[in-house]
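Backbone shapes recur. Consider a single case.
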Amino acid sequence: MTPDKRKTGGQQKNREERKSTGKPTQELRVMFMLTFPSKVSLSTFSSSSILRRLPVIFHSNNFQSTPTISPSSSSLSCHAFSSLSSSTTTQTTGFNAAFSGAPSKQRIENSLFLPSTGKRNVCTSFSLLKDEQGWFSKLSSSLMVRKIETGKDSHSRLLADSEAIYEMQIHDVKPNSMNAYLGSMDKFTKEVTAKDSSYELVGSWRVEIGDQDQVINIWRYKKGYRSASETQKLIRSDSSLTALLNDQTKYLRQRHNQFMMAFSFWGHPVPAERNSFYEMRSYVLKPGTMIEWGNNWARGINFRTNQVAGFFSQIGQLYMVHHIWHYQDLQARKDVREDSWTKPGWDEIVAYTVPLIRELKTRWMSPNPSSPIR
């Protein structure tokens, strides 16, 4: 049998299988070529589940992917073509997506998130040279291709609206030493704030569900890094404050801290007496995604009314975000979170932000007696 006949026979067999099963047998295959002067790395992914996200008309299409290699320069290129045949016409359209390290005004940054059964397939940067409302426009809307605005300044300038710096202290207390620790903490708070008015306790909570015997303290340096430097110098040089800190440490198993800033769209946390529980959701994001996170949550915050504070890290674990919410109890938490899904647009916020997360941790907390936020 000649190759042409074998090919024709294979196509006929695919058509017969598609008629009998009612399911498409063709898969959407996209091939990415990452080329360098001396090395070529090929990553190919294929998933028939992608077809479920496409308009019905594409279920009958044949998709092909043709890689293009440029051996003399570093580039990422991808060609995809769709052929739609009928009894009278055949239409072919395509797109060329090329990546280069230097951004330009002509380049449109997008992220392409393709559904997969086991891992997330991502093409992180596309330059759409030609589309003209063809099949790629329909594909883009189905697979959530979107424009990502790149930052032109530091995160602290783009995402925050003041110079205030926050310090989060995470203290793991020895079992059976919580009351003694809280008493020592209360003494230190009163003395240090009396000696330095630019340093204040924002909130103090004990973890009820999560890391047991853990305390979260959040402090604010009102005048930013200058204030932080002066306060740290005061604590080291003042013998009374140093003694109080040493007294705290004997009740601890371990401790670490982090410097943060508040998201401008969350606002700054203020003292409040709600008689509530609090949940702190901590996210470690993929590097380079903080601006996209902020853009989406600037809209997402409007779906809730129980927000307390939102921070992003500056020193310590980088690309880390903390959201703090208040609830009357665990049932109220369940009700509020489920109610969000009934509001149009919330699902988009989740769909756009979940792929940015590397790690997620949540703590259910109760306020300590000396906490300004209770």
Summary: The chain is about 30% helix and 35% strand. The chain has two domains: 22-147, 156-367. The longest strand covers residues 75-85.
